[in-house]
Automatic annotation (TrEMBL):
This protein's GO CC annotations: apical cortex
One Gene Ontology MF term: cytoskeletal anchor activity
UniProt organism field: Melospiza melodia (Song sparrow)
SUPFAM superfamilies per the UniProt record, alphabetical: ARM repeat
GO biological process: apical protein localization; asymmetric cell division; establishment of mitotic spindle orientation; regulation of asymmetric cell division
Domain Protein inscuteable homologue C-terminal: 70-522
Protein inscuteable homologue LGN-binding domain sequence ranges: 13-57
Xref: InterPro entries: ARM-like, ARM-type_fold, Armadillo, Insc_C, INSC_LBD, INSC_LBD_sf, Inscuteable
Record's protein name: INSC protein
Amino acid sequence: LPSLSLPCSMHLIQVDSVQRWMEDLKLMTDCECMCILQSKPISIEKDEQNELILSSQYSTCDNLQLLLKRAWIISTELTRIAQKLEKNRWQRVHSMTVRVNCHVHSMINEYNTSSRSSSEEMHQLEKLLIDKCSEFTAFTERCLQTEDEEILKSMKSCVNETLTTVAQYFGQLIELVLTQEAQNLLRQIELSGSLYVTESAISSLFSLAQEGAHLCRIIAKEGGVVVLFKICRQDCFRCLYPQTLRTLASICCVEEGMHQLEKVDGILCLADILTDTSHSEATHAEAAAVIAQITSPHLTFTQHLSSFLENMEEIVTALVKLCQEASSGEVFLLASAALANITFFDTMACEILLQLNAMKILLAACSDKHIVDTPYSRDQVVTILANMSVLDQCASEIIQGNGVQLLMEMLFEKSSSGNPAEAAACERVQQKSAVTLARLSRDPEVAEAAVKLSCIPRLIKLCRSPTERNNSDSVLVACLAALRRLAVMSPDGLEDSDFQQLVKPRLVDSFLLCTNMEESFV
């Protein structure tokens, strides 16, 4: 997720510019109204105020989204002010400062209207920010009234300093507001005995966690992981397990969340859920998603998960069963992603998978187009095959399950939509299938099967044609390695020119030759 120059990370969905303008129109209109009214709130009757507060408790998520969107606008405006200030465009600086001032007032008024409790610290920060914004606006207005370059130069440093202070107060206020919102939601989850209130609070917490890593850190620091695992240990909340586990998966993308998970024996809880056959498939799938998150090879802070090794065998067993019985592609994807990550996490997992006949189960699943229905799922399967292929016993399993045919098909993986994420997944499938072939072809029987299935011509095509591999260097290296392994087992399968260019030279020389190759030479 892209992050802003705030202590919190927020994201905006990429949409059509007209649609974005329509969405922003209300905020812009409010801003102009605030200019006219000089930020003076319209008083309302006491009964109406109570009614407004009462109705707002059911739209916490909407209020948070409005707050985050307003914060994004202010952050963007502050960045633009700094840019205009650098170019000495004082007229623009002043008009944008007025706009920021209005947005800040609107944001504070909106939040105080919808929030039922604010701390003294928050009120102090609000006052500091409002005062500093007013000072900032007055300062830039004075800059407009002088044309003396020397005076403007001396004032510029003061304006810069004020801008920095405004940004600092604004960041602190947003941090405090988000912390308070997280605390309120967690308090609701922990203290409410109502299924409806708990579900609503978890839903709002999930929305908050989707706003980025910094929000996840706030939730984790406020005890979010502890509170959510308490829900997962109460039978009366069983219907909320999928939603709760989905929220946990989001929060555990940060180190603070992982530490909290370890402290509350979260791994043991997840193992219990996965092995309990009375739970729904949706619950098992979301538990698998948490496992996939905490074992991700991209994270650098999984080493402390010592308890995972203690429960690994039963977790792996449950995940293989989930893959075998998956009723949809989504469930299979979550379960296979968890297994794929675990094979990176510990090599013992590959031996457990071999004992569980996982190779046969995964290969069979790939023949069902309703289950393994996307490049993302095939990416998980081929990752598991690649990591298991280091074991000598895997070769016979691959032969028996018609796995060489599957690997050959994966060498043809192409994106149908042109979506960048899907294209990247297709590249990974091609690369890992070539890696798996290279590793397994040390067994003569596998190499013979690969040659009979015309793997060599396909590997040559991938090496020589950049478009076939989506210009991927990693696919090229893997294909060169697989081709060289097969060439040793079956030297007659190559033309002399292919042998001279792709096999005989050093791998780096063949790589450079192929990366510089024009499509017309293929």
